[in-house]
Amino acid sequence: METWLAATLAAALLALAIGRLKLFIGLSYRRRDGDDHLAVDVYTLGRLVRYHLEIPQARIASRGGLPWPEAILATARGRTETSAKREQRFVRTTWRIFRYHPRHWQKLMNQFRYFTRLYKRATATILVAVNCEKLTWRTGLGTGDAALTSVAAGLLWQLQGQTYAYMQRRLKSMPHPSFRVVPLYDREGLDIELECIFSIRVGNVINTIVTAIQFLGKGDNNQWKNTRSKVS
Q: pLDDT digit string (tens) for 164-180?
């Protein structure tokens, strides 16, 4: 009996400790001279537990006369080159359903609306618990015309301000950001350096998962179940 109580207490303390852990998510995006570089870093326990993903090269490839994004992914397991073939198959399948099976298309749209509600519910739950630890955004912009470059730089300043105001409303806390817009009067180009770090407690992530599961189990799920059974 005492062993059972000790094990229960130890499990409860462990769950509490895990729930209090802070999970950090770092995003870094850089664009210079037409080259894009994106890095995602997820870590906790002072980077003792860490996942790192890099997209050192991204490009727009032409397939079938249409532009498709492709990239090279670099993870701990090595480098992998993505292909647009999967997206192309998805588009072709969606088009065939829309053209030859309009009733199935309506059912797919019902599913889409249902999962959109689920996404909004989960997002609203998790964002109020997210802290922004760092936000740096530097942009160099040139259009080749001095007057147009000045106007574009002003619009970009407004965009950065609106982005900060939105994040301040939705997130739990926000630091003072570091924004900078550099007009490039001597050349055409778009250079971007963006870095942001977010943190959230593991317990809040678990709470969001529980909220999503509860949403799936409510009455709204009856429509999804009926739609899924008809489609299958």
A: 999 999 898 999 999 99
Candidates 98, 69, 99; CA nearest to 84 is 69
- On the 0-12 / 13-18 / 19+ scale of CB atoms within 10 A, 67 is exposed
Q: What is the pLDDT of residues 36-45, one digit of tens each?
A: 888 899 998 8
Dist. CA 119–CA 110, nearest whole Å: 14
Say if CB 183 and CB 158 are below 8 A apart: no
The rounded distance, in Å, linking the Cα atoms of 141 and 191 is 7
Other CB atoms closer than 10 Å to residue 202's CB: what's the count?
15
- Output phi, psi for 33, to 5 deg: 55, 40
In Å, how far are 80, 146, 158, 181 from 155, measured between CA atoms?
A: 37, 14, 5, 10
pTM above 0.90, yes or no: no
How many other CB atoms are there within 10 angstroms of residue 162's CB atom?
A: 10
Query: Which residues, at least 6 apart from 51, have a Cβ–Cβ distance to it below 8 Å?
Result: 41, 42, 43, 76
**Residue 57, pLDDT score:** 61
Coil, strand, or helix at residue 65? coil
